[in-house]
Amino acid sequence: xxxxxxxxxxxxxxxxxxxxxxxxxxxxxxxxxxxxxxxxxxxxxxxxxxxxxxxxxxxxxxxxxxxxxxxxxxxxxxxxxxxxxxxxxxxxxxxxxxxxxxxxxxxxxxxxxxxxxxxxxxxxxxxxxxxxxxxxxxxxxxxxxxxxxxxxxxxxxxxxxxxxxxxxxxxxxxxxxxxxxxxxxxxxxxxxxxxxxxxxxxxxxxxxxxxxxxxxxxxxxxxxxxxxxxxxxxxxxxxxxxxxxxxxxxxxxxxxxxxxxxxxxxxxxxxxxxxxxxxxxxxxxxxxxxxxxxxxxxxxxxxxxxxxxxxxxxxxxxxxxxxxxxxxxxxxxxxxxxxxxxxxxxxxxxxxxxxxxxxxxxxxxxxxxxxxxxxxxxxxxxxxxxxxxxxxxxxxxxxxxx
Length: 402
Known about the structure:
Distance between the termini: 98 Å
CATH superfamily of the domain at 44-118 and 154-305 and 329-349: P-loop containing nucleotide triphosphate hydrolases
CATH architecture of the domain at 44-118 and 154-305 and 329-349: 3-Layer(aba) Sandwich
Strand content: 25-35%
């Protein structure tokens, strides 16, 4: 019986290749009629920045704070960290983003931010003010018209507002309760950020968001609230769990071409000095552990590492003292941005009540603001004390406190 010839390759299923597999899984770039990307893109948008002052740019060799990334600011107290956040907030607003400010230190000054350029309108209302007679101790009251709120293209959350909106949520069970705990916890911030991004995706918010938190380490986690005790390990664990999706997904994925809006996260991280690791030198550590550190692409140090390492700038006249600035330093400790922006430089700058200026322009700043300084000094002078320009002495005091 004759054998039937078998064609070479018969019975073998030909592999379609990776291109066909991508097309089958919907992983091929397919623009719609209006040229919008219809799949999740693997390409980033062009690099953009929240523009910072020239003094910042000269010191760091960066245009500003990168948009679409997680950036941290660390340092000792009074080294210019809040000034940096205010600049970021002002730039965000001017560049068409919505700044979302989480003030868990309850120390944000709208007056300071407005002086630096924030567009915010004061809302006035009648407030009852208590008067105490210094001789008799008798208490009386009067009504004053004062600023009771600020409005503008921004969102502001302090601990009271966070507790008001999220205080009924039990993070141990993942359910709402009937009782408001009346106290904010760090998980509330992560919940708020995710809700805002969802609202953005659903069309309720039509701008990119710049989240700003002052500061990590100033507020406890839900477990600490329940136990009525502070525990840095619990806080570190809560940060890692609560913000995992935010810092590893929601923020970086917004940089992709297929994301309509780009979102940014900038935070101050409180620090503590670890003198147990090294027998000769204390090491600066972030409060809350390294949960955020690994997701942070740009880390900025204000001031020194061992001590504040700044100069307090004051003007003195006839016994009156006016603090008008801080000469500090700025250093990029970590930079995981793409080339050519992956540089780590450091340099000096001055934090004033109008923002950062360069050390070289300090003398001109003092001259151009003499009238303002005089007005400030005269405003607090008593019994008709008058201050002239010749009465003012400018002083610099080293501050090396931890």
